[in-house]
Amino acid sequence: PPPLLSAPLTRGENTFVPGGYFIGQRPPRPWCHTLSNRSFGTLVAYGSLGFTWALNSRLNQLTPWHNDPAAPFFGETLLLQTGDKIYDVLSGASVYFYGTAAEYGAVCAETRLKITVQTDAAAMKKRVRVRREGGGPCTLVYRVRPLMCDSFKRRPYLRGTAANGALTFNNPANVDHPGYMRLYADTPSEARCAAGEGTLRVPLAGENGEICFYMAFAAKETALDALCALPFRPPVPVEVSIAHKDSAVSRFAPLLLHGVYDTRVLARTGFYQNSGAYGFRDQLQDTANIRAAF
Q1: Is 82 exposed, middle or buried (0-12, 13-18, 19+ CB in 10 A)?
Q2: In this predicted structure, what is the pLDDT of residue 192?
Q3: d(CA 154, CA 261)
Q4: What is the pLDDT of residues 86-113, one digit of tens each?
Q5: Which end of the chain is more exposed for a tag (fewer CB within 10 A), N or C?
Q6: How far apart are CA 190 and CA 219, in angstroms?
Q7: In whole angstroms, what is the distance from residue 198 CA to residue 278 CA?
Q8: How far is residue 215's CA from residue 277's CA, in Å, rounded to a whole number?
Q9: How far, in Å, CA of 231 to CA of 213, rounded?
């Protein structure tokens, strides 16, 4: 995929590109993208960070899904504060969706964001790069509103703590998928938690800066500590090339296969039918399509 974090972004056109799809302006219809492994994933969208789950995309939503992809997601928000002004980094940002990542190019302060999910663990990384010519100090703020269950009716039981620059949440009402979620950064940060919501504030002293935010999940808090202490292992890109007489189909097919496998088989999530139907017929049609393509 094109290295968007090191190259200028072209705005204005929405088009399929080799390996993925580029959105340079607000699309006429909602567009989401799934990044998932067998036990953890996130559904990101144009203009918002979407929602994240562990083990089951319906029963254990770490951050909430509102079943309306046309409306903004507010479970996870990335903000940039400069003086008395606060910007939503993803508002109006162009984005490139491809198999193993989503890369955003924000309007404010030439900010770049890359989102990846670890291949073999319940962990996600958001790398943010800020370049500001002639600008003063600024602060990156990651705001999270956890759910950690399947319904807002059980959200009042949520517990959260802020310690050592990290946020840790647990919902004892989720007896089907009990566990702990943690949000932290790779640099010293100020963690605040109140009323079931949390923020991580990371100051940037110079004109340029790079921060990595991490989200992880484990069944036990001791296991979560061990997972967060390990280095993040990025996913290995899998290149898929399909030759078709129609060049548009050739560009579209790799992203379509990714959508079938990551969204339907691994994540079991999608528009309006979060978690997806997963009976025999559904499994048969999904796996048959993948098998036919290869």
Answers
A1: middle
A2: 95
A3: 31
A4: 889 888 889 999 888 999 987 666 789 9
A5: C
A6: 25
A7: 34
A8: 27
A9: 13
What span, in angstroms and rounded, lies between the C-alpha atoms of 207 and 145? 30
pLDDT of residue 250: 75
> What does the buried/exposed string (b/e) look like for 210-234 if buried means 16 or more CB atoms within 10 Å of the residue's CB?
ebbbbbbbbeeeeebeebbeeebee
Give the closest residue to 48 by CA, choosing from 110, 130, 117, 126: 126
Contact of 237 with 229, CB cutoff 8 Å = no
What pLDDT band is residue 5 in, cutting at 50, 70 and 90?
Answer: very low
| pLDDT surpassing 70 at residue 10 | no
Contact indicator for 129, 111 with CB cutoff of 8 Å: yes
What the block records as the tokens of 52 is 């994240």
Total count of residues recorded for the chain: 294
Distance between CA atoms of 246 and 242, rounded to whole angstroms?
Answer: 11
CB distance 177 to 55 below 8 Å? yes
Mark residue 134 as left, alpha or beta (left: phi above 0; alpha: psi -120 to 50; beta: remaining): left
With tokens 């296991």, the residue in question is 223
Pick the closest to residue 100 from 278, 277, 266 (CA basis).
266
Q: What angle do CA 119, 111, 254 make, to 5 degrees?
A: 40
Q: Output the CA angle 277-152-218, nearest 5 degrees.
A: 75
Smallest CA-to-CA distance from 115 within 13, 214, 187 is with: 214
- What the block records as the tokens of 68 is 């309306």
